[in-house]
Amino acid sequence: MKFAPALNEQQLIRCIITDSDLILEVESKYFITQIGKDLFKTLKYFYDRDNPVTPIQTNILNEGNRLNDAITEELTKNLFEVEYKLEDFQFYYDSLKNDNFKKVQSEKIMKEMLKKSESKGGLDRKDIRDFAESIVTELDEIEYHDKVVFTYGEALEKYKKINIKRQKGEYFFRTGDPNLDKFLGEGFAPGYITTLFSATGIGKSMYALSLVNKQINRFMPNAYFSLELGFDTTMDRLISQRNDLSMDFVRSQETAQNMAGIIEKERKTLENNKYSRLIVEPSLSIDNLEYYVKRFRNEMKKDYLIVTIDLLTMMKDFMGSNKAEVYEDNMNRLHYLVRRYNFHLFGIVQANREADNTKITKFEDLHKLKPSLNNIKSSGAIGERSRIVLGAFREKHYAMTKFPNDPRTEMMDDILEISIMKQTSGPLTTLEYYFVGKTSSIFYKKMDEEMETIIIKKSTFDNLFEQTLDKLELKRFTSNEKDAKFVNSPIGKMHRKFHYEVCMLKDKLKRTE
């Protein structure tokens, strides 16, 4: 097949020329033309050398022409002039997979079926089942954006790609909030669920909206599903937050003329942002969510996005008589969905009323109302399926409801605490934000830098604790023997040092308050 490579092939090749590590993301079998395959093989030759050579036009022409004389100076010149966007790499690759299926695989399957049907025995049920399974396998690889079955050689090749991304600092998925990012091991990684929960009135929805707002400003692919609040209230909060305006100002008839100018300014700012979507859908189902995710990924030409749903448990599928069973089934369905379509789900859920119903008689005991994982409604299913769980708490909220006349209530700062209660990598800690309900705004309360560093470092050593027990073969010893051996090991001494530093710094911070 000596004809020019398809446009998707050319754009994909251009992306690889610009960022050579992308070659590890691509399988040559999806190229449709022989020229496309040979151009890819040429780039792979340069990439696999002990001393990689930058694939400039001359290099590609010389090596490529050796493989295929159709790779000429004119063709390579046109290749370097083709229009492309590096950020659309995944879109080009997905499009190539689809084209390959339509033009190559489907034709191959149909020819095979025709050949079988014309044979002496004809088609039997096994033949039809085999053909159907081969079609499903091809479609799964396209929809999953990757193979789902690996030899261990293939698995290690894929793992190699992940390691290269980690070396380049590209295997972290931002939340929108750089302060939260510091303490999350992988961020809002594709294929996983994060849950944020709190009691009513604490500010979880405002915190979620603040993350969405930051994602909008950073042009991060995101979709915000507002199930609890209507369109007008959602937009009031967003505009209030983006412009530091009071909700009274935003909603007042007297200031409507001023608001007209602010709204127009925001429209001009956001109209060209193709990576954000607002969906005000009071009766969202999991099937609807699947449709929207597929649609947005196609419109944005992105393989990954963050989906925020407020409130998650207001989805139609969670409304059933047997709550525990319904929650478990639907959390499993959502988990399947995020894995299949490579997005991160940030779900906002309600806490049970345990804190609201707890009676405390001392102002000093307000901290006892802080949430725990057990306070999530139907916490078993939601907590188990969540990679990260965040809990929100505002002590002043409870001070105002339980001790409204205490002078300390008026004097205290309104601090929103966001506690990382569960994550598979990274520390379990608490971030503090100044909460300004009047303007729907949240501002990070800067943590002492020394404290921040120690928390992150200590987490690293905490994660190594179990590995150390294994290496020292301590699991066969008694608790006292384990303690003695661990304390005297190198990592045990470092662990103890960091624990001491944390305690000392906490004490120092208390004395300076």
From TrEMBL:
What InterPro entries does the annotation carry? DNA_helicase_DnaB-like_C, P-loop_NTPase
Q: Which residues form a coiled coil?
A: none
Question: A Gene Ontology MF term for this entry?
Answer: ATP binding
Q: Name one GO biological process term.
A: DNA replication
Show which residues constitute the signal peptide: none
Pfam families assigned: DnaB_C
Name this protein carries in UniProt: SF4 helicase domain-containing protein
Question: What is the source species?
Answer: marine sediment metagenome
